[in-house]
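Could you please consider the sequence and fold following this short note?
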Amino acid sequence: MEWRDFAVDMAGMARSFLARDAVDETLDKIIDAAAKRVDGCDAAGVLVVRKKQVTTVASTSQIVDDSDRLQERLGEGPCLDASTLQHPVFRIENLATETVRWRSFAPRAHALGVGSMMGFLLYTDDHDNLGALNLYSHRPGAFDADAETAGWLLAAHAAVALSGAHEHAAMRRAVDSRHTIGEAMGILMERHHLTEDAAFDTLRRYSQEKNIKLRDVAQQLIDQGTLPEGEDGGVPGS
């Protein structure tokens, strides 16, 4: 590992990460960087576990998806543990001889063509679990201590970038939601001669009564001209 060259690459990669606002674009950039910059890496992916459901949110190869599905089916595996148990780093030198940890997963992963694996929990102080960045090689013993250090450094940068992308997406959704609700309020105010507060209370009441998100109630009013189930009768002043 040429650390000076790696440092230059990391600096450029960090700037590139900051230029990506969308979560999907950031994820693709992360796994592409892992596959290109970590010695021995043949494939990379990011796995997220929510309520015991495994989701492959990004991958460079089918072997990543197959490994994630295998771990979900077996209920065990290094990527699963990294995400659910928040293990910061794992490295498996040889799947063929891994007999202590993940006894069911290891031989089946080896049959898929995985020789060695390495993974890193993606986290920041604000987001304790953004998923796990997992690296694969067809060769046993492909990842040494230097590769682990390189992967850890990349994962740290990636976690910050991914956290920022999630926050940007949340802000965009919030702005879009406020715009949608404001437009729906305007329709009610004009149609029923309501005050701003009364229009908002009407949307909120329908949201609670129908158990529908406030933004979705507003969007239906904009798209269809009526509140859920066409019930305008409860609107004050109608």
Observations:
- Helices lie at 3-18, 23-37, 62-74, 78-84, 105-112, 145-192, 196-210, 214-224.
- The chain has two domains: 3-164, 170-230.
- The radius of gyration is 24 Å.
